[in-house]
């Protein structure tokens, strides 16, 4: 059944903006999107806490305002930041959701794309556990592709960009090791 196959290649969003199969960890760091704002962008990031270390709970702690500043020197720098993303894809491909897609997560910061400011207003933020210095895992691309398919099925997605595209000079993620070909995007850079 082709329909069955289609379903297996996407992670479906429900009407409340959640993916049921994702692990849900609620972040308080969100607010309402502007009225009548259509969601047409996906922003891809990388993150690791501590930097370049994987598998711990630092990212979840940061996004829920529970990072312990005494645990690592870098944590002391960032623990007061109120940030979040809609999704995190861990190294093993596990999908975690922090904020409903109907709400505005705080991932992009000061940003602009093709004449529009404040990309958080109209985007879904996806963090890949990783860094600018290391390749991402096949399992991460697999989950990312299914997530993108699900988002495209729900929202009129027109732009899939990196954080560095919308905050040039300020942000470098997802970095040179992110393979845009994996998600069928040709970059002209
Ligand atoms: Zn970022």
Q: Globular, elongated, flat, extended or rod-shaped: what is the shape?
A: globular
Largest sheet: 6 strands, mixed
Uncertain ranges:
none
> What name does CATH use for the topology?
Lysozyme-like
- Going across the biggest sheet, name each strand in turn: 1-5-4-9-3-10
The CATH homologous superfamily corresponds to Peptidoglycan recognition protein-like
Number of strands: 10
Helix/strand order: HEEEHHEEEEEEHEH
Strand content: 15-25%
- The number of helical elements comes to 5
CATH class: Alpha Beta
Please state the second-level CATH architecture: 3-Layer(aba) Sandwich
Secondary structural class = alpha/beta
What is the residue-mean pLDDT, rounded to a whole number? 94
Ligands and ions found = zinc ion
Describe this structure in words.
With 189 residues, the chain is of the alpha/beta class. It has a single domain, classed as Lysozyme-like (3-Layer(aba) Sandwich). The protein has five helices and ten strands, in the order αβββααββββββαβα. The protein has helices at 2-8, 58-63, 73-78, 138-154, 163-166; strands at 23-24, 30-32, 41-47, 87-89, 95-97, 103-105, 112-113, 116-117, 123-129, 159-162. A six-stranded mixed β-sheet has the order 1-5-4-9-3-10. A hairpin with a 2-residue loop joins strand 7 and strand 8. The mean pLDDT is 94. The protein binds zinc ion. Zinc ion is lined by residues 45, 163, 171, 173.
């Amino acid at each position: 059944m082709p329909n069955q196959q289609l379903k297996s290649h996407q992670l479906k969003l429900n009407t409340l903006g959640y993916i049921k199969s994702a692990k849900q960890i609620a972040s308080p760091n969100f607010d309402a999107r502007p009225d009548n704002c259509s969601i047409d962008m996906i922003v891809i990031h990388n993150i690791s806490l501590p930097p370049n270390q994987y598998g711990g709970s630092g990212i979840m702690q940061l996004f829920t305002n529970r990072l312990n500043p005494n645990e690592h020197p870098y944590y002391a720098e960032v623990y007061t930041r109120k940030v979040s993303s809609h999704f995190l894809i861990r190294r093993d491909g596990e999908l975690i959701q922090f904020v409903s897609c109907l709400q505005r997560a705080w991932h992009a910061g000061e940003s602009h794309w093709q004449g529009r400011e404040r990309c958080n207003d109209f985007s879904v933020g996806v963090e890949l556990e990783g860094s600018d210095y290391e390749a991402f895992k096949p399992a991460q691309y697999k989950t990312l592709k299914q997530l993108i398919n699900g988002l495209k099925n729900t929202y009129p997605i027109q732009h899939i960009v990196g954080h560095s595209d919308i905050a040039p000079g300020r942000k470098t993620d997802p970095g040179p090791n992110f393979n845009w070909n994996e998600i069928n995007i040709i970059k002209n850079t």
